[in-house]
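User: What would this chain look like folded?
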Amino acid sequence: MTAFDDFFNNISNKNQTPKLFDLENFESELKKIDENIKQASNLNDFLNKNFDTTEARQAWENLKSKDFKNQDSETEEKKTKNSWEENSTKIEIKYPVKKDEATWWFAGVAGMSDLKEELREHFIKPLKFKFLVQNLEKDKEKDEKKFELYKMLHDAFEKFKVWIPTGLLFYWPPGTGKSFITKKLAEELEAWIIEKSVWEFGSSYIHETSKNIKIFFNEAKKASKIWPIILFLDEIDSLLSKRTSQIDNNKAEEISQFLQEFNSLEEEAPNLIVIAATNRPDHLDSAILRSWRLDKKIYIWPPDFIARKELFEIYLKKKQRPTTKLDFDKLAELTDWYVSADIEHICDEVARKASQNILELVNKIDSDLKINEVKKTIKNSVITMELIEQEIQETTPSLKFTDMSLYENWQKKVSSGS
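Assistant: Here's the prediction, encoded as C-alpha cells.
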C-alpha cells in the first residue's frame, strides 16, 4: 500500500484510529500521482479527439430525448384524434330566418306541386299541429280557451293513430336541390336544422366511427328536446352501403350502430325528424329502407317546364334584379334537362356580367366623374334576354352525362315493393 493510500484511508475511515504514513516516501508518491494525472489527461484528450464528434453528441442527445419525443408524438397523435372526433360529432344548429316573403316556405320552391301537396298533407300539417300543442302546453301565458280547443282537436286526432313519417329519404340526380328543399321544409315546420354529411363520421381508428355516430345522435336528441329539429343527413350511401360477404367487421359495426340509433328515435326523440339524401339509392343497405326507418321515399324529378319557368322568375323577378322585359316561357324551353343548380348559376352569372359597368365607374370617381354618366350607366346596366340566352348556350346541363334510368328503375323497384 502506498503512502497516499495510507493517507486516504486514515482520513476517510472514522471508525479507526488514523495511521501514520511514511513521510520519507511521500514526495516520490506525489510525483507518481502527478504522472498518473498527466496520463489521465492524455487519455481524455485522446477520447475527445477520436470519439467526441458532432455525430456522437447528436446520437447522445437523441438518446436522452427519446422518451420525451415518444411522449410528444403520443400527445400530438391524441390531439389530432381529438380534433377529428370533435369535427365528426359536432352539431351546428341553423335557425331559418325570413328574409324575403316572396320566397319564404314552399313559395320559394319552383314547380313540384304534387310533391309539395304530398308533404303538406302527410307530413307538415300533422307535425305542425303536434308541435303547436306541445308549445302551448309549455306556454304559461297562453290563451286557455284556445288551448282547450286545440287540445280537444289533438286528442280526437290522436285516437285515429295516424302514422306520421319522421324518416324520409330524398333521392335524385345531382344538382336538383336537396338541401334547398330541406330548408324550405324546415321553414314550413318552423323547425331548426342540423345538416351533416355522413362521411364526416369516418375515422381511421378502430371503432371510432361507431363512437362518433353515437355521440352525434346523442347531441341531436338533446337539441330536439328544446325545439323540433330536422336532421338532414347528406350522402347517406357513403355510410349505409349494401352489406356483402366481403364487408369488413368495422363497416358492419358502423351500420349496426347507425340503425340502433335510428331505432331509438321514436321513443327518445319524437321531435327529431330525419331526412336522408342520396344520389345513389341503389347503393343503400336494405335495412335502412324498412318500415319505421326511412320508410317514406321521395324521388325529386328534374324540374319540368313549369318548374324551370318559376325558377327563372324566382332568381330574377322575385329577387328584383334589374332586367328588361323577359320571356320566361322561352327561357324554360331553352333549359330542358337543366336542374335548379344550373338555372341558379345562369342567373347569378348574367347578374354579375350586367353589373360590371357599375364596378368600372368606382375607380373613376376621383377623376371628375359626372353624375349624368353615373345615372346613364346604372340605367343601362340591366339583364337582357340576349345575355341570358348566351349564358344558357355556354352552360352545360348537369344531367347531360347522368344515367336517368338508374333513378327510374329504382323508383319502379320501390313502388312494386320488390
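Confidence is low (pLDDT under 50) at residues 76-85. If you want, I can go into more detail on any region.
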